[in-house]
TrEMBL record:
UniProt entry tagged with the keyword Cell cycle: no
Transmembrane segments: 100-127, 186-211, 268-285, 297-316, 344-363, 384-406, 421-441, 448-465, 480-510
Membrane topology: Multi-pass membrane protein
Subcellular location, principal: membrane
Name of the protein in question: Solute carrier family 26 member 4
Gene3D superfamilies: STAS domain
Length: 779
């Protein structure tokens, strides 16, 4: 006794159990327990339930659409307000700098990054369900928006002749940067508006589940590739090297090649400022992480570095003396709202779909982490609606797509933020920067902003160390991570995400198409059944084979079920049947020649007649399946006398087959028809097929698929494998061992005309075409 030997004496009686109950088949269990089939509601009842409204339900609907009505009345002013103010101040400073920096990724003037760090927070405050995420730009999403902007408004479209241009590209051609920037801002805001519309539609249609198809390994590989894309895009800004704007397949390779080809034109002042910023930011961030239990508020190193760099740039006049690239102009105040350019929707619909999903997935993933930590729930569909309206609203004010940033959210939470009140306060800090402080940041070098972006990529690059762990835990997940990362680097973020998603779905299909299966046996003295290959003490019931197929059964894996059946039972039911028919034909010939005589005791030879007429089976055997016996065996027609014809007939050592469907969740129509055919193929060679451990919904699916008839009834379905085994034992105790083939032999003896031995015709074309062809060939 395994567990009982270790149990204390008072609990010894609890170390085992004894159950006495009838053997349950499906009809018997339903009859005894009076099964009540569920009645689906009528259309009228559904309409009444949908249209019924009460004061309580109306308030619940209002709270679900405006979550602020849920948490704001319960706001603990004395406990939370101070923490939210401190958190909002810290987060606002970081959001201001990140807004400026991430605008570089979108390829718009940096001042528009401040708008993108301000407007989305206003709507999310009322509509969002997460209390801790900081809404605003995120480098991955910003880069995806920037790729669309650069593809639709490249520099080549704004080349002009004359001297009225405000900039020049690497070839010396003049560029109308004012018109280019205005067009790029319009494209970015229009894309943001379209992304918002798609997100609202997704939320209204309640399809927040779509983010579940973005598995963690896929997101990890994608964000790591995006971090690499961001690094390359910011590298040329740190070096202050002018390159073409590449998009599409291999764009990152082209950018790297051109950057290193022109590395000789690097601006030393920008390079030094960028490298120092990266070094200082990463060191201080590491200090914040290691000593976060001692430092009450993380050091806002981005803010400190920016202030110092701006002061140095202004005092040393780096633009004039060293030709450093600086921000130059940040608009003060707000621009009036502008409608989107609807004519551009058709050119950006595909990209907007992927951006909408990725932005939502990032926000929900981060939100769920903090919701779990602080024991509250976020509504995925409402998050779609919240971010959708945030992007629609901010798109009208020349912003780019908003989601959440991991580092900024970590600052908001670690500094004590309790609710979105901290978010509103951070928006107030950004507002001050827009209205009053923007002018002070104009001397800031762009390489410093690019370095701030690069320093914030550390967490994404650290995901590379997840691959060895994934490989040890699940090799398929590791392959998804690596494939998505490589595809996103080579193909670009939009195509790479699609390729990774398709590859992930392909792995699921393959795992379902080739599931695990095995022959099961019984552990003596118990009702437990385990794989025969995995346990030494497992014993297969005599004359019974048990197969467990661990997957839904549908058109793609039905062949896998058939091959697993052949491997489990050790023979091919179709081949056995055809071999028996061939033996009967040869016996008929010998009877006609007088060589044999059929009696009630079997087939005997006439006295004094040798068996010269006996024929050998010259048909080559198929040895592809080593588990199927192919040696010649002597068949007893009545299981007492030998079959006097040499035909290689595979042995049939079983009389029953049990299919354990405990892991089968659904069957399609192809599976229903194929299983019905399998049953009839085995019954023709006197092997009964039973089903066990099935789920209730399978019976309904079989009924809808016209599975049951006069020959296949529900009494072959049993609640457990042990029920089926006990039933088979009881049946075999009283079974009649007469062979139906003997009846055919006797019929030949009485008939003067040759008897045609043809396969029983199957109604409804249930047998596969290939198997039908084999029978015709054998006949």
């Amino acid at each position: 006794m395994a567990a009982g030997g270790r149990a204390s004496e008072p609990l010894a009686e609890l170390s085992h159990y004894v159950v006495a109950r009838p053997i349950y088949s499906e009809p018997g269990f339903q009859e005894e327990n009076e099964r009540r089939p569920p009645l689906p509601p009528t259309l009228r009842e559904r309409a009444q339930a949908a249209c019924r409204c009460s004061r309580k339900r109306a308030f619940q609907i209002a709270k679900s659409f405006l979550p602020i009505l849920e948490w704001l009345p319960n706001y603990r002013v004395k406990e939370w307000l101070i923490s939210d103010i401190i958190s909002g101040l810290s987060t606002g400073l970081v959001a201001t700098l990140q807004g400026l920096a991430y605008a570089l990724l979108v390829a718009v003037p940096v001042g528009f990054g401040l708008y993108s760090a301000f407007f989305p927070i206003l709507t999310y405050f009322f509509l969002g369900t997460s209390r801790h995420i900081s809404v605003g730009p995120f480098p991955v999403v910003s880069l995806m928006v920037g790729s669309v902007v650069l593809s639709m408004a490249p520099d080549e479209n704004f080349l002009i002749e004359g001297s009225n241009a405000t900039g020049a590209n690497v070839t010396g051609a003049l560029i109308d940067t004012e018109s280019r920037d205005a067009q790029r801002v319009l494209i970015a805001s229009t894309l943001t508006f379209l992304v918002g519309i798609l997100q609202v539609i997704f939320g209204v249609l309640q399809i927040g589940f779509i983010v579940r198809y973005l598995a963690d390994p896929l997101v990890g590989g994608f964000t790591t590739a995006a971090a690499f894309q961001v690094l390359v895009s910011q590298l040329k800004i740190v070096l202050n090297v002018s390159t073409k704007n590449y998009n599409g397949v291999l764009s990152i390779i082209y950018t790297l090649v051109e950057t290193f080809e022109k590395i000789g034109t690097t601006n030393i002042a920008d390079l030094i400022a960028g490298l120092l910023t990266i070094f200082v930011c990463m060191v201080v961030k590491e200090i914040n992480d290691r000593f976060k239990h001692k430092i009450p508020i993380p050091i806002p190193i981005e803010v400190i570095v920016t202030i110092v760099a701006t002061g140095i740039s202004y005092a040393a006049d780096l633009e004039k003396k060293y030709n450093a690239g600086i921000v130059k102009s940040i608009p003060r105040g707000f621009l009036p709202p502008e409608p989107p350019n609807v004519s551009l929707f058709s050119q950006m619909i595909a990209a907007s779909f992927s951006i909408a999903i990725v932005a939502y997935a990032i926000a929900v993933s981060v939100g769920k982490v903090y919701a779990t930590k602080y024991d509250y729930a976020i509504d995925g569909n409402q998050e779609f609606i919240a971010f959708g309206f945030s992007n629609i609203f901010s798109g009208a004010f020349s912003c780019f797509v908003a989601t959440t940033a991991l580092s900024r959210t970590a600052v908001q939470e670690s500094t004590g933020g309790k609710t979105q009140v901290a978010g509103i306060i951070s928006a107030g800090i950004v507002l001050i920067s827009i209205v009053a402080l923007g002018k002070l940041l104009e001397p800031l070098q762009k390489s410093v902003l690019a370095a701030v972006v690069i320093a914030n990529l550390k967490g994404m690059f650290m995901q590379v160390f997840d691959v060895p762990r994934l490989w040890r835990q699940n090799k398929v997940d590791a392959m998804i991570w690596v494939f998505t990362c490589i595809a996103s680097i080579i193909l670009g973020l939009d195509l790479g995400l699609l390729a990774g998603l398709l590859f992930g779905l392909l792995t699921v299909v393959l795992r379902v198409q080739f599931p695990s299966w095995g022959g099961f046996g019984n552990i003596p003295g118990t009702d437990i059944y385990k794989k025969v290959k995995d346990y030494k003490n497992v014993i297969e019931p005599e004359g019974v084979k048990i197969l467990k197929f661990s997957s839904p059964i549908f058109y793609a894996n039905i062949d896998g079920l058939k091959s697993s059946l052949k491997s489990t039972v050790g023979f091919d039911a179709v081949k056995v049947y055809n071999k028996r028919l061939k033996a009967l034909r040869k016996i008929q010939k010998l009877i006609k020649k007088g060589k044999l005589k059929a009696t009630k005791n079997g087939i005997i030879s006439e006295p004094g007649i040798n068996n010269e007429a006996f024929e050998t089976d010259e048909e080559p055997e198929d040895n592809q399946d080593p588990q199927v016996p192919t040696k010649e065996v002597e068949i007893q027609v009545d299981w007492n006398s030998e079959l006097p014809v040499k035909v290689n007939i595979p042995k049939v050592p079983i009389h029953s087959l049990i299919l354990d469907f405990g892991a089968v969740t659904f069957l399609d129509i192809v599976a229903v028809r194929s299983i019905k055919t399998i049953i009839k193929e085995f019954e023709r060679i006197d092997v009964r097929v039973y089903f066990a451990s099935y789920q209730d919904n399978l019976i309904s699916q079989l009924e809808r698929g016209a599975f049951f008839d006069d020959t296949i009834r529900k009494d072959i379905f049993f609640l457990t494998v042990h029920d089926a085994v006990l039933y088979i034992r009881n049946q075999m105790t009283y079974s009649d061992n007469q062979d139906p083939i003997f009846e055919k032999i006797s019929l030949m003896q009485e008939s003067k005309e040759p008897i045609e031995f043809t396969e029983a015709s199957q109604p409804d074309d249930e047998l596969d075409v290939q198997e039908e062809a084999m029978r015709r060939l054998a006949s």
